[in-house]
Write a structure and sequence with these properties.
It is built from one helix and twelve strands; from the N terminus they run αββββββββββββ. It is an alpha+beta fold. The protein folds into two domains: 39 residues; 137 residues, Immunoglobulin-like. Strand 11 and strand 12 form a beta hairpin. The relative contact order is 0.18.
Length: 195
């Protein structure tokens, strides 16, 4: 009986240790992935107006207070840059947003030419959870962006030149306005204006 108790205690200790080590391992893996992505901060990311970092994207946002509160997010533009990879004819970049809350099977993505100047063609960014061909959907806070630089000089045999990931932190520049109800003589009632 004592022998069984000792074996059960040992088994219980092993289970506890295994549980804690798997929790620590997953958090270590996540933090290492973020560290690797942030180590190349000066080399890969999004250049945009009003941001000194390739890892921060500033979006303008209108915030209404008063009787008719609300928020209106605006879009912004930027350019993908990879200072280690020169632009080249027939080179494109594909960006995919794998942030939590967005579809993991069909993530928002955008494909742009990476063939002239020192960056990609202009990319539109907007707060959204939907996939769209016009802009890259983003979420507030950190967004995990995976990228691929693809050589399309041979359309039948496209080659991935480089791939990786980086975190893009979406922040807001808020303009706050008071919006109160207005009287409509046509309907003889108060309404919230759209502006």
């Amino acid at each position: 009986m004592n022998n069984l108790k000792i074996r059960l205690k040992i088994l219980f200790k092993i289970l506890i240790c295994a549980t804690f080590s798997s929790i620590q391992t997953s958090s270590i893996i996540e933090s290492k992935a973020e560290m690797i992505a942030n180590n190349s901060e000066a080399m890969v990311g999004i250049e945009s107006v009003g941001s000194e970092s390739l890892r921060i994207l500033n979006l303008d946002r209108t915030v209404y207070v008063g009787e008719c509160p609300g928020v209106r997010n605006k879009s912004t533009t930027g350019y993908f840059v990879d200072y280690e990879t020169d632009v080249k004819e027939d080179l494109v970049v594909v960006l995919r947003n794998f942030t939590r809350g967005l579809s993991p099977n069909n993530p928002p993505s955008v494909e742009k030419d990476y063939d002239s100047g020192r960056a990609s063609d202009k990319i539109k960014f907007k707060i959204s959870s939907k996939r769209n061909k016009i802009y890259l959907s983003m979420q507030p806070g950190k967004n995990m962006i995976k990228y691929q630089l693809i050589d399309e000089s041979d359309r039948k045999n496209k080659k991935i030149v480089k791939s990786g990931m980086f975190f893009l932190d979406v922040k807001f520049n808020d303009k706050v306005y008071r919006r109160d109800k207005e009287w409509s003589s046509e309907s003889n009632s108060y309404y919230c204006p759209f502006w």
